[in-house]
Design the sequence.
């Protein structure tokens, strides 16, 4: 496989400067640089004021260079160990190299004496190994972090020459245009392909990014400079190739502080025209994309004790919802109660006697029967899918429980209030107009209840099956979790069909994601797979979060339909941790608050878990065709619709706090 060039950007700039004067100025700058042994454009240091001597995981000292707001290694990584001290596998054999799916490295040309000058060659599996190839305080840059440097030094055909070491000591003649004015010292290490052979030594350098190719997950992105070109080119290639690595420092301009981001005030793009990626300026603390799982409440032992944090107990908790005050409400199913958790983790009983029943009343004078789903409105009312009673109940902020809809007898009948019938209503959500939508599980229908209590059928034939279509021409098989976004689109977890469905306000049903076969494959749309998904919520950016019950993980579906795994190891457990190091035990339902925190019911652990999301988040969702990267805040893509001027809010969140900014966007 040849490497594939992508989205190369060339921007020609017009100068009205006498050429001889320009050459004289540039020559003077280079002579000045040679005398000082330091670039006039960037500072290269052996030591670093924030971290002292810079050493890699082997203890090798390396130089650094500051370019714009970033600090880069001024030489290629040559470590043979991960950050935890464990060894990276050294593979010299030709046939073994291409077959690897785990981290490995080799010396250039398999000659260890080349390592000090050229660094090591690593496959992409070493780049993304959880033990971390980068030294503490450093990381392998993303595609967009390379772009940040690229745009700083000049998005033109001369970007590569500004990074290449001058002369032909290491580079093959003519080493076109090399000035090294930033002190980056790029050297021609070449690369190792999946056939195990080495290529382009002395002719080219090829660095990994940490970014996977979303459209083909066998590939990942890289950056390359050639001996006979002046450009810095973008490519993607097989993960089994061996490329060099330049790390970038973690710290932003201010460490241990909240972010402070800004975008240009207004952007004007054209429908159908690719945009030059736009990213924020951050003069505050580092922002990185991460999902940190913790336990908000629950001892892990079934019970019904009120208390704070782990002193409280639950019994098969299911439905979960938040209100605008930051309170969390839990359908504590087997306790037949609705529990409330304050933002500080204090658990109390909001409503329910604890004995199965259907009595209306206030607080513990009311009763429920295996309540499943919950949602809340802007006024602080909580709606309950009271599955065992086949009713929809309403609880005011004062704890007054009434029956909103449903006769209490299992069946199917549209109507008003208690004349209507449900058959094990499971999921429930509410839109901005006060319409309640219910996953009527055993009826295999999606029902709509207006604010006046009028019940109708939005979609579903009533027969278990799978069919996209409008209204009753569509079919579901055990619909469970349900949510609605700011545009009125309804998302349903179609559990036994192993799919996520989307419904318009007029009842048109389509498939958002899921192949229909049980599995745990990440990918776009129907290429992805789930295993009995149960819970669902959506954020203001249009990201959809899925509780993938049998897979013991939380999945994320981007606005473009790409499915990834946000959190969970895939093995049943109760470990707190970051992203895939955390574990769950048959989680069921999920919700999100205004600070982008996720909360979920971890049923078999009898715990309520919290996922704190760090990164960049945008609202409302960008117009179709544009992508928003939560790791970098970068906006990219090709707009596919026109859009009048609209204000967007971006919030950057790190462990020290958050900061928001706005910009205007128009698409002609």
Sequence:
């Amino acid at each position: 496989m040849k490497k594939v060039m992508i989205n190369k950007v060339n921007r020609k700039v017009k100068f009205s400067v006498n050429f001889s004067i320009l050459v004289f100025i540039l020559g003077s700058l280079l002579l000045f640089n040679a005398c000082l042994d330091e670039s006039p454009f960037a500072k290269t240091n052996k030591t670093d004021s924030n971290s002292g001597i810079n050493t890699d995981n082997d203890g090798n000292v390396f130089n650094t260079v500051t370019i714009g707001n970033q600090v880069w290694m001024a030489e290629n990584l040559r470590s043979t160990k991960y950050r935890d001290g464990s060894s990276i596998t050294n593979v010299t054999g030709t046939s073994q190299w291409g077959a690897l799916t785990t981290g490995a490295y080799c010396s250039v040309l398999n000659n260890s004496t080349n390592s000090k000058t050229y660094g090591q060659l690593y496959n992409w599996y070493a780049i993304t190994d959880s033990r971390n190839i980068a030294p503490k305080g450093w990381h392998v840059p993303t595609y967009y972090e390379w772009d940040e440097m690229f745009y700083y030094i000049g998005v033109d055909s001369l970007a590569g020459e500004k990074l290449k070491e001058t002369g032909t000591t290491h580079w093959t003649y003519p080493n076109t245009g090399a000035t090294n004015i930033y002190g980056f010292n790029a050297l021609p290490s070449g690369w190792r392909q999946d056939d195990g052979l080495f290529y382009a030594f002395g002719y080219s350098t090829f660095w990994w990014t940490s970014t996977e190719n979303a459209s083909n997950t066998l590939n990942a992105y890289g950056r390359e400079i050639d001996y006979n070109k002046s450009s810095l080119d973008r490519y993607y290639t097989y993960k089994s190739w061996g490329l060099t690595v330049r790390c970038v420092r973690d710290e932003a301009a201010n460490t241990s502080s909240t972010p402070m981001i800004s975008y240009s005030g207004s952007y004007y793009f054209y429908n159908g025209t690719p945009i030059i990626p736009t990213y924020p300026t951050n003069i505050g603390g580092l922002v990185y994309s991460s999902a940190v799982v913790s336990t908000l409440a629950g001892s892990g032992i079934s019970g019904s004790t009120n208390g704070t944090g782990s002193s409280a107990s639950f019994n098969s908790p299911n439905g979960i919802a938040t209100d605008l005050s930051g309170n969390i409400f839990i359908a504590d199913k087997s306790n037949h109660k609705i529990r409330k958790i304050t933002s500080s983790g204090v658990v109390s009983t909001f409503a329910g006697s604890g004995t199965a029943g259907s009595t209306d009343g206030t607080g513990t004078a009311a009763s429920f029967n295996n309540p499943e789903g919950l949602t809340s409105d802007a006024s602080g009312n909580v709606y309950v899918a009271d599955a065992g009673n086949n009713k929809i109940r309403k609880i005011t902020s004062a704890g007054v429980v009434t029956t909103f809809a449903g006769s209490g007898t299992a069946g199917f009948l549209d109507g008003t209030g208690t004349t209507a019938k449900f058959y094990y209503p499971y999921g429930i959500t509410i839109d901005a107009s006060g319409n309640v939508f219910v996953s009527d599980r055993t009826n295999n229908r999606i029902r709509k209840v207006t604010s006046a209590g009028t019940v109708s059928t939005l979609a579903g034939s009533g027969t278990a099956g799978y069919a996209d279509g409008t209204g009753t021409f569509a079919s579901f098989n055990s619909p469970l979790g349900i949510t609605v976004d700011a545009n009125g689109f309804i998302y349903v977890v179609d559990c036994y069909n192993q799919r996520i469905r989307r419904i318009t306000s007029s009842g048109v049903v389509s498939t958002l994601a899921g192949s229909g076969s049980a599995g745990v494959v990440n990918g776009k749309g129907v290429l992805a797979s789930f295993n009995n998904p149960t819970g669902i919520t959506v954020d203001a950016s249009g990201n959809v979060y899925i509780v993938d019950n049998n897979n013991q993980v939380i999945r994320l579906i981007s606005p473009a339909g790409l499915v990834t795994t946000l959190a969970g190891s895939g093995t049943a457990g109760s470990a707190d941790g970051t992203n895939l190091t955390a574990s769950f035990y048959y989680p069921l339902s999920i919700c999100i608050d205004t600070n982008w925190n996720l909360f979920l019911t971890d049923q078999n652990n009898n715990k309520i878990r919290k996922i704190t999301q760090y990164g960049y988040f945008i609202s409302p969702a960008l117009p179709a065709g544009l992508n928003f990267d939560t790791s970098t805040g970068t906006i990219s893509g090709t707009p596919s619709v026109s859009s009048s001027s609209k204000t967007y809010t971006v919030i950057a969140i790190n462990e020290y706090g958050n900061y928001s900014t706005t910009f205007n966007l128009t698409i002609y």
